[in-house]
Amino acid sequence: MRIARWAAGIAAAVVLSTGGAGAEPVKVGLLLPYSSVYASLGEDITEGLALAIETFGAETGQEIELVREDTEVKPSVALAKARKLIYQDKVDMLVGPVASNVAGALRDFVDGVGMPMIIPNAGNDDLTGPKCSRWVLRTSFSNSQINRGMGPWLKAKGYETAYLMAADYAAGRQMMDAFRTAFEGAGGTIVGEDYPPLAETKDFAPYLAKARAAEPDLLYVFFAGGPAVQFVKQYDAFGLREDLQLAGAGWLTSPLQLPAEGEAAAGFIGALNYVPSIDTPVNAAFQDAFRARTGRIGSEYAVQGYDTGRLIVEALKATGGSAADKAALVDAMRAVHFEGPRGRLEIDPSTNNIVQDIFIFETRLVDGAVRQVVVDTLPAVRDPANGCVMDGR
Ligand code: PHB
């Protein structure tokens, strides 16, 4: 087996596993951000995916080649790169994207071409709801799957009013809508909301001042990547950590961002589809291998990449190593089951979204480091069809 590493930020084609069958390699096009606000997410997903292909790829009897392209978190760039990967590089499948707005822009194109696309992050509800497609499946989460359970959970803890704040694009809007519906349904009240622009906002002070003035019991947020670090530090510097409980989608204090956030992150209540402390042999093996490879704790992004790599391997095993028949390939992907670091991975064929446990955690200072401490688990959360009528082509 040949193993190769790449320099950060370079678009490169890398052959990761050789089964010695002598056939053309199976080509996987990675359509992820390697620059801009979500660059660290794209890198973590790529490392996780490469680790899975290196670990399991030889089982397919096929060479698997990864071809990277940078979406820059821009829908038009991602669409151009998708065309390049499909028509020039002749990839057999796409893995991407990270951001919900980019996913929305890619959907009709991959659906029309008939190209399998595995989403290893972007949570856009529409893509496993009214705009679902047989060709688009998701190993990560839907935006509402992560946030829905937090409404009744926080209300039951005694929080009566909440103020919403999220990055101003499809993901932020969908997550806040899911929380709002669930929180109001449980009897809570939303007293205000605000949506700072995704890439441009460096100064959260005016937004934090408005939130404080509304005097809510809770500030419920979605920020990820670079903006998550900036938000957490400014919330702390603003003196809000003592006054106003912070809660939200758990990426705010991802293990990927915690080293940069430090103690400022302590006290947050979040929900996520993975925490590194899951106590299973499969998770321990993943964490050991990921740390040996990168020197970092494996985040939920890394796990989503790793499970995507494993899903590709399992699907190729089911097709005898062939990616030639795209319809057979995508059907094999949809039927895959295995135990991953999160637990049992299962794609619901009626929406193509993953079914998984959601963990509610608090970030606490434990032995001098800020960690996610699980306080509750919502088991096997499955999205409703949400308008999805799956095309059986
Ligand atoms: C999204 O745009 O769907 C998105 C991005 C980053 C996250 C979660 C969701 O951490």
Distance between the termini: 37 Å
Total domain units = 2
Per DSSP E runs of 2 or more residues, the count of β-strands stands at 15
Return residue spans where pLDDT drops below 50 for at least 5 consecutive residues: 1-11
CA-atom Rg in angstroms: 20 Å
Global structural class: alpha/beta
**CATH fold annotation of the largest domain:** Rossmann fold
How many alpha or pi helices? 13
Unique ligands: P-hydroxybenzoic acid
CATH class of the largest domain: Alpha Beta
Series of H and E elements: EEHEHEHEEHHEHEHEHHEHEHHHEEEE
Measured by DSSP, the beta-strand proportion falls in 15-25%
Helix content: 25-40%
CATH homologous superfamily title of the largest domain: Response regulator
Major sheet summary line: 9 strands, mixed
Shape: globular
Write up what this structure looks like.
The protein is α/β, with parallel strands linked by helices and 393 residues long. It has two domains: 207 residues, Rossmann fold, CATH 3.40.50.2300; 128 residues, Response regulator (Rossmann fold), CATH 3.40.50.2300. It has 13 helices and 15 strands. Strands 7, 8, 9, 10, 11, 12, 13, 14 and 15 form a nine-stranded mixed sheet that branches. Strands 1-3-2-4-5-6 form a six-stranded mixed sheet, sandwiched between helices. Helix 1 runs parallel beside helix 12, helix 2 packs parallel to helix 3 and helix 12 packs across helix 13. The longest helix is centred in the C-terminal third of the chain and has 19 residues. The radius of gyration is 20 Å and the shape is globular. The site of P-hydroxybenzoic acid has 10 residues, from loops.
